[in-house]
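Quick one, probably user error.
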């Protein structure tokens, strides 16, 4: 086995540059310097709290994963404004109409169910038209999103489509919104279509994304293929996106995403390069919530193996 003095000498010869560590070996060694690739990081990413291992939720300012949508409603119809907000820690969310604060009262019901935030307006009137804003705030930052409600004859009288999927099931307001003990003054105007007239407990609807298999840290050599795999469930089916260092992964001939049955999703990287190293995030979003997991990819440069076996003394 190598002596402690030899190991100390080897370690002390490492010289750090921006993206690599280069060891300078003793002159008697037959091997030359061998670059080992490390993750290139910006100053913001190199802080102690910039990396979160798989399964942990990173701290983040509020983000509207699904924003509010503009609505055109007929007089007397019910209007539902909804959005999905991700943040850690959970944010405080407030609503305003044309700059004036709103709260649940009479025809207006504001609800927060985890990351899903909704505003239900019963029997829309012309005076209800205007700009509605949701503002989310936590200790890391603030985000706002606005939508315009127009009330006029000929507007929609049925639940409007989700920005994510058009085949999801909507529950009528009395099933979805009332608090225990609350009563409604009359029969609701929003109904499920005949093909959707099933309770959520029977269909498995209203399920936010859940990761059954999360990302794992990986370390590969340059030129190796990389496969990052997750399994996520939810109803409606979550929309999955991939990010590297918090920026969307742009598909090309080497990098592409795949989906299979059972919620299996993969990000494949062919012939990994040093520039592919970084922190990868898989984000899953549906109408009822958003989840993400994160892992680190290290791409090592080609390197000769140092033999630590002692040499026989020269005769």
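Nope, works fine. Designed sequence:
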């Amino acid at each position: 086995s190598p002596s402690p003095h030899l190991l100390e000498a080897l370690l002390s010869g490492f010289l750090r540059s921006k993206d690599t560590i280069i060891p300078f070996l003793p002159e008697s060694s037959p091997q030359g310097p061998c670059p080992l690739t490390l993750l290139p990081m910006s100053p913001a990413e190199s802080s102690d709290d910039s990396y979160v291992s798989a399964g942990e939720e990173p701290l983040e300012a509020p983000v509207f994963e699904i924003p509010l949508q503009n609505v055109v409603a007929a007089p007397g119809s019910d209007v539902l404004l909804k959005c999905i907000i991700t943040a850690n820690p959970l944010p405080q969310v407030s609503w305003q109409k044309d700059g004036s604060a709103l709260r649940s009262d009479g025809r207006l019901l504001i609800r927060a169910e985890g990351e899903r935030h909704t505003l239900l307006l019963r029997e829309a009137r012309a005076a209800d038209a205007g700009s509605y804003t949701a503002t989310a705030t936590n200790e890391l930052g603030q985000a706002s999103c606005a939508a315009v409600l127009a009330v006029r004859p000929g507007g929609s009288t049925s639940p409007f489509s989700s920005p994510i999927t058009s085949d999801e099931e909507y529950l009528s307001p009395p099933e979805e919104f009332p608090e225990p003990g609350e009563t409604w003054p009359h029969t609701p105007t929003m109904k499920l279509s005949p093909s959707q007239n099933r309770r959520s407990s029977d269909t498995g609807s209203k399920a936010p994304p859940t990761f059954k298999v999360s990302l794992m840290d990986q370390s590969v050599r340059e030129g190796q293929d990389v496969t990052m795999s997750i399994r996520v469930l939810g109803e409606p089916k979550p929309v999955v996106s991939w990010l590297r260092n918090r920026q969307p992964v742009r598909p090309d001939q080497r990098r592409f995403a795949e989906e299979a049955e059972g919620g299996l999703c993969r990000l494949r990287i062919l012939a990994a390069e040093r520039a592919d190293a970084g922190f990868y995030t898989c984000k899953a979003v549906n109408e009822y919530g958003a989840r993400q997991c994160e892992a680190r990819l290290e791409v090592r440069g080609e390197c000769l193996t140092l033999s630590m076996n002692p040499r026989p003394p020269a005769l």
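The chain has three domains: 4-37, 68-162, 208-300.
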